[in-house]
Amino acid sequence: MIVRRWLIVALLVAGLPLPLVGCGVPSSGPAVVVKAAPRNGVPSNPDAAVTKKTPLGVTDPQELVRRYLQAMAWGNDTSQDPNATDKAVESAKAFLTPEAQANWVRGQDITVVRVQFNLLPVTTANGIRVDVAMQPVGVLDGHGSIEPKATGVPSTYAFTVVPEERGRGLRIANAPNGMLLSTEGLDNLYNVEPIYFWDSSNRSLVPDLRYINRSLSPATRVAEVTGWLRDGPSDYLRPGVSPLPAAIEFKDRPVLDATPGSVRINLAAKAANVQNQLAKFAIQLRWSLRSLASSVELQIEGQRQDLSRDVAWSNPAAVPDGQRDAPRFGVVDGRVRQLDGDPVTVPALGSDDNNNVVSAAILRGPVQEVALVREEAHGRLRLWLGSYNQGAKAAEYVATDLEGDVMSRPVGVLTAVPSDPAFLLAADGRLCAVSAAIRQCVDRTPPGIGAVTNVSVARDGRRVALVADGRVYIGMLTFEGSIPSVSQLVEVQTTLSDAVGVAWSREEWLVVAGRSAGQSALVEVTVDSALVEQMQLRGLTGLTVTRIVADPSVRPDAPLRGERGPIMIEANGRVYRVFSGSVDEYPPEASPAPSTSASASPSGAPAKQSLPSAPFFLD
């Protein structure tokens, strides 16, 4: 769905006719200003200094090690400071004794590690031992990306902490080799800063997760982000997105006017050769800079650019015009029904084929393609696809050839063939792709993983998350016609065991349902595994979660990390809404939803109310 609500191309015209744009560098004319994309959140004081902590005066051995594992922060920022790595190395070495400094080998890369301190420090003959379990997450590169480690096997390292020679605190006597940065340091000293690339069919924006140095000034952050855009997508996204056209080169450093929050981008002369792509580039810039600026002005060789008003490009994750509450759906008495949220009319649900439904999906858009997993008379499940025929004024459903004993909820995907959308679902351990034209399972199970049990597609339609044998993976969707395939598969470290469900809760975050300490648990985790947030929820204890769904829409006032979208779970055969600190049964037992199959009980008592199952949001 194309959303234009916050992305507006406005011509600044000072009472002059609009010039025509020909070959070469265009003549001076009105600037194109791309305004008001949803803000990713600007700190209340963006110029406040952010500094790393030093070892001076530290008397707690664990605190010393914790600070040491944050000292390599900003060492990847060599595009803004060629000496950044050397400076970070010196910052880390300040935590070590002279002998440890002499023996330490820095290595080539900054490795991000998830850290857990084991028990309390122990006094030994050599000093104080601090045991730390460290799990490698990936390598933080100079473009703010974390390239995942092939094997993130945790290991425990015993740090030895001794008094500093001049009695000014403590130092580490035996640091592990390599430049290490804890995920805590990443969280504290970097901002999450997604940048955006157009998907390979040039239809939708796809976010690329980056981490930006919080100590940089806003103007320097703008230069960093625009440089990342010029250098292209991360390796993970590369198969499914497009880099900037080669003709788009920055003539000089972007200029940030901090008072109105506008950025001026001056391009080299050859950008005039791709004039028809500049409007799209302006939108890409606006989304990528939304935490830093409120508008973007494009120039070529110092001359303002006049672009068309009709820019039909947007972010599919943006909240649709006028939406106040995401529509929620579920299955009640074997039929798909809207549970609540902004009312949505789905004519295809009025069909008699909307029965015996186990789970379902509705692909948003003018056609509203519907996928139903229905139970057949012999107890097996079959996938049905349907939509509403406006000409015939009737819903039309067709049975696909996909039949199985166990099926996940289907998820809809817009393909490069608009008239032929596809659905992905897990069926008897296989990842199946089914399109309206090819009504059978095309097996897209990635090699090297176990039985697939759950699938979720990001709102951009190019990133996918899977659960297979209790583990969570992410990958990219590429297309052969209207049939998607999965590539670039990487396991996500969730800190949970036995994952049963995954959903996209924010543009760059997954929410995962699994087990922790023998109980059902939910966590949110970034797609690169670096940041994990445990969700402490009242009412979850004692429930067995079997399904999780979310709506990752972006709102204009979202904070730096984005705003967690609404989440629903299915547990113990019932539907629950997930709030910031609790889960509540849906609908509340005190006011159950009206029954759709009403017959009064013979005794005159109120009929038993039906409760929903199989919750979902629009895809």
Automatic annotation (TrEMBL):
Stated name of the protein: GerMN domain-containing protein
Domain GerMN: 194-305
InterPro entries the record matches: GerMN, LpqB_C, LpqB_N
Domain Lipoprotein LpqB C-terminal: residue ranges: 337-553
Domain of life of the organism encoding this protein: Bacteria
Domain Lipoprotein LpqB N-terminal, chain residue ranges per copy: 60-184
Compositionally biased region (Low complexity): 592-607
Coiled-coil stretches: none
Region (Disordered): 585-619
